[in-house]
Amino acid sequence: MAKAHALEVEEVLRHQCVTLDKGLSSAEVALRLRRHGRNALRRTSRKTTWHILLDQLRSVIVWLLAAAAALAFVFDENVEGAAILIVLALNTAIGFATELKAVRSMEALRRLSLVPAKVRRDGRLYEVSAEHLVPGDIVILEAGDIITADLRLVEAANLQCDESTLTGESVPVSKDIVRLPPDTPAPDRNNIAFKGTAVTAGTGEGIVIATGMESELGRIARLTELAEPERSPLEQRLDRLGGQLVWVTLLLAALIGGLGIWAGRDVLLMATTGVALAVAAVPEGLPVVATVALARGMWRMARRNALIERLSAVETLGATTVVFVDKTGTLTENRMSVAQILLAETTVDLEHGGHATETAFSSGGEAVIPAENEALRLALETAVLCNNASLTGPTQASADSWGVGDPMELALLAAGREGGVERNALLEAFPEVREEAFTTATKMMATFHSRDGACTVAVKGAPESVIASCAKVMTPAGPRTLDAEGRRQWLRRNEAAAGEGMRLIALATKTAATDEEEPFSGLTLIGLVGLLDPLRAGVALAVAECRDAGVDVVMLTGDHAATARKIAADAGLGDYQELKVVELVDVPDLQSLTAAARAELMSAKVFARISPEAKLALVALYQANGAIVAMTGDGVNDAPALKKADIGIAMGQRGTQVAREAAHMVLKDDSFASIVAAMEQGRIIFGNIRKFVVYLMSCNIAEIMVIGIATLSGLPLPLLPLQILYLNLVTDVFPAFALGIGEGDPGVMRRPPRDPAEPVLASAHWSAIVIHGAAITGATLAAFLLALYWLRMGRADAVTISFLTLSLAQIWHVFNMADRHSPLFANEVTRNPWVWAALALTITLVVMATYLPPLASVLALSPPSPEGWTLVLCTSAAPVIAAHAVKAVRGKADTATNDTEASRRC
Asked: Would residue 570 show up in a list of annotated catalytic residues for this protein?
């Protein structure tokens, strides 16, 4: 029954072998239930706690640490091995605790199967579980019902359905039973009621044509299952860095061990040295610091109304190059609002504040007072009388609580209230005596109201229908005859307003002798009302911030192109006339598209009438072209693309449970501005990660070089393996923690996003690591040699001097992590209070390692003499002093170059 919308009702009934008055028999229901299965979505395997735990171990760096621990145990370095395992356990525990709440989107979909349904079977009405519906069942619908299977409607009386979970659009869809062309896309199949949607008004009956995974909702659920989430850029980069470290570690260990054996050194000694090199090369603190930095970013984002489900998604936002933003509920407020009232000789604009009823009436820039404008007052009264909605409070507290009823009728009531026209007061003066309900045949609604012994008829409906039914038009001078040319002029005004993205209804009135009179003849046209889903406050500013940050914003909507263009222009996505809008109802065959066609498609700023499959294809297209894609959404139809995107962003207030659980991030306030704030945090996080990776690697390179040079030159080892591990876990980690949770550069959103292919450490960073590492190595070896040959210390005491020199040099090295263009004493490092706390703690731990007997004994350290401390302080400070001197010289050179360039330009 895939083409049931293209068949007449009788054909559908005949095809399903069922009669409308009797329904299926109990025996036939049992047979079809066995044939088609339960009306439920397929259960997907739940991600177990063990899987979440194992995910924390899928990292090259974690494997490298485990290998180093195993190597330490092989050579009886049990303390080193145990310490590395403790680091691994700590990192795993942090990641596991944070990511325990994994993505389980199908569970939310399955809850829909528990809703009851009213069916006709054996000629009687029954209420059965939705799971037991079968194709051919006759289902009875009333306002408030959840539709539990795809139905071909066979009866519809003023039936309207909220299909926002499937299409993302907030306006209820009027339903009928009229046969449609076979190629009609799903969102336009007005004779089908879809599983998972809700009846907002009217009554109807339908025959079940699809259940479970065969329904439209099931099709989207299948897409969500198939949409494989991409690994985050940070995970990919850290794995690449881990791979580089593996090769560097193996190369150095093999090179130095081989050279030592070739030089005649003891094989066991060189094996022990290899363990020390492995321990020195692997930054044990990197996984822990990265995890804590991401967790800290996650907490900061939570304070900005962005809840992160997965740690790595924190940094992914900072790498985002394009944001696919859902129009309804993200750029707009997901509610209708009166924007214009078109009267005979003027157009009245309504400017909205933060709430639906904070409205100002104006025309041509001049304020208009409804009480003093007869035509405007009559328009508001008619809109309020011909209405079945009700406002629940004086203002819009929230999108879900400001009223009950059709969103369009609520918008009319809100405009009336601002103009001083209250429905309750008006009904007291002019009681309603009859209502002519809206039908798809007339496309109009009318209410009769008792007034001075006669009836005032208030009419609203589709502009084409109302204008055709009008004999007169209301003007400032009173009613005037509406001729054929006048009707054409009103239709042209209607088309022009629709071209600006508005939904329009017409208002008309007449006086009837009794309430039995025909409501839709001899009407007087009052005007047209243009409604929009208003732009959310702050959206245009947030879009401008994205543009400044080099992030493309592309709008996706199930709405029509004209409406989409207007909202996109108001949001700042481009000029109204120049905006490229593409209607993408069908899924593009990306494989068959030429490079030029792909580029042309990707140049669009707005995709309208887009289907769930097309959203998924677009995400894949941009990802294949190297983009890091963020995708926002709130409906079931958005779930596949949310899961596929690099960072899926669901709405927390209006979003469906399905969308929220398929996403990586949930916005508590549904605000696009919160996405921009989260992007800023993501960029800061990556900058911090890069800072502490450079810091950790330069410290570890220094340790490798100290051991390697000493081994190749025949010197005693200046450091013991356990001392190296203590440095890695203490003096490295705490300053790295401080760098990882810093506030970051406030100007980070004024720069373009990183190249998605850019690694954590580029060539410039590796150069800096080697240079800083060489400086710290030189200072450490100098202190060791001076202690041995100048101060005539024993080997154990000289090792203490080299240990303390390396420790303090690494501590001071944290000040080299400030941006090269920042001042010496006032920069992002010196302003970071965590840095000072880390330095105080680290220095305390270094002193304890020297003076606390149990710890000093394990580390083979002894308290140095005053001369030793003097030597330590002088040599450890030399690298940071030299680095800042070089920085000052380079800064002056850059300034001179800039001045020269400026003079040349002048």
From this structure: no
